[in-house]
Write a structure and sequence with these properties.
The chain is mainly alpha-helical and about 350 residues long. The chain has 2 domains: about 40 residues; about 230 residues, no CATH class. Helices cover about 85% and strands about 0% of the residues. The protein contains 9 helices and no strands. The protein is rod-shaped, with a radius of gyration of 65 Å. Keywords: Coiled coil, Membrane, Transmembrane, Transmembrane helix.
Length: about 350
């Protein structure tokens, strides 16, 4: 009975060991299978990790490139900011220059308006001066005609006095003088040209070297009080008229070169030439006096002509001097306007 139980126990143990063996085989198979599955899963993880590593490396490269591009963009932005600042500065400077140019243009326009006004005034003044010069020229022509008429009357009077003696010559001269037009005085001429006669007295040369007085000559020659006060001065005026007229007519063309001289030396040279003309006229008067023979009782008439300078020659010199002064004024204004125009042209060109 004990053996039977032992056999049963052994049989039970054998069956349990066989079951354990089967379970062990099953567990081993499962473990092998799980190991294989784990190996496969690990390989898959390795492949995925490699893929993610490659992707991460590409991402890092892209990030590095993006960082480099960002730095380039930052530097470009700074450069553009600097250029914009420079452009703003240059724009401000150009605006300031434009404003200054506008101010200069306005000032130049104002100057042009002023110069146009001055030009109009100069043109009006020059036209006025031209009309005055033309009137003075006409007066000179009239005076020349009067001088020629007086020369004719003088020659007739002298020839008549030589042929008919003192009384007949005196009467003939009285008639000729009575028929003459009144000679214009210095006061009337100076009023017509608006220049005081006292300012022009320095341009007339009077010969005071003769000691004989005018009253004694008049007493020797005159036959009546009317002749004392009227005829003798006119005769003395006629004595040197031929010589003075010739001298004046010869010297009038010589005055034209002085009208074209520059402004700085025109006044002095014209005055010097005028004084030389007056002195030469007085010298010609003296030489003419020595050539005229005494006529009856009028031998002292050349002394009167040397003492009292011919008023007509004085009038001629006065008118010539006025013409010279007016020409100087017109030329000075013209030269001043030309210099102003040149300065304005230089400003526009600059």
């Amino acid at each position: 009975m004990g053996e039977r139980n032992l056999e049963k126990e052994i049989h039970r143990i054998l069956r349990s060991s066989s079951k354990l063996r089967e379970y062990n085989i099953m567990l081993r198979d499962k473990c092998i299978k799980q190991d294989e599955d784990f190996d496969q899963e690990r390989k898959r993880w390795d492949r995925e990790r490699n893929k993610w590593g490659q992707k991460l490396g590409g991402a890092n490269t892209k990030i590095q490139k993006l960082r480099t591009h960002d730095l380039e963009l930052i530097s470009e932005t700074r450069r553009l900011q600097i250029e914009n600042a420079r452009k703003d500065i240059s724009l401000a400077e150009s605006k300031a220059k434009h404003a200054t140019k506008l101010e200069e243009i306005k000032s130049l326009r104002n100057e042009m308006k002023l110069l146009k006004g001055k030009l109009d005034l100069f043109q009006k003044d020059s036209s006025k001066k031209g009309s005055e010069i033309e009137s003075l020229k006409s007066k000179i022509v009239e005076l020349a005609l009067k001088i020629s008429e007086l020369e004719r009357l003088k020659s007739e009077d002298i020839s008549g006095s030589i042929i008919g003696g003192d009384g007949e010559g005196q009467s003939l001269m009285t008639r000729r003088v009575a028929l003459k037009e009144p000679v214009p005085t210095i006061k009337n001429i100076t009023k017509s040209v608006d220049i005081p006669s006292k300012d022009l007295s320095q341009y007339f040369v009077r010969d005071k070297s003769t000691p004989i007085s005018e009253e004694s000559v008049i007493r020797d020659y005159a036959l009546s009080p009317r002749v004392d006060t009227e005829i003798i001065p006119k005769v003395s005026d006629e004595i040197g008229i031929n010589e003075s007229n010739n001298n004046i007519l010869q010297e009038i063309p010589n005055m034209t070169p002085y009208l074209a001289q520059p402004e700085n030396n025109s006044g002095a040279s014209a005055k010097a030439h005028m004084s030389s003309l007056i002195e030469s006229n007085s010298q010609m008067t003296h030489s003419g006096e020595s050539l005229i023979p005494p006529i009856g009782g009028i031998g002292a008439i050349p002394i009167v002509a040397s003492t009292l300078m011919s008023p007509l020659s004085a009038y001629i010199f006065l008118i010539l001097l006025i013409i010279v002064v007016m020409w100087f004024v017109v030329l000075r204004r013209t030269w001043g306007f030309e210099r102003e125009s040149d300065r304005l042209r230089d400003m526009w060109i600059g």
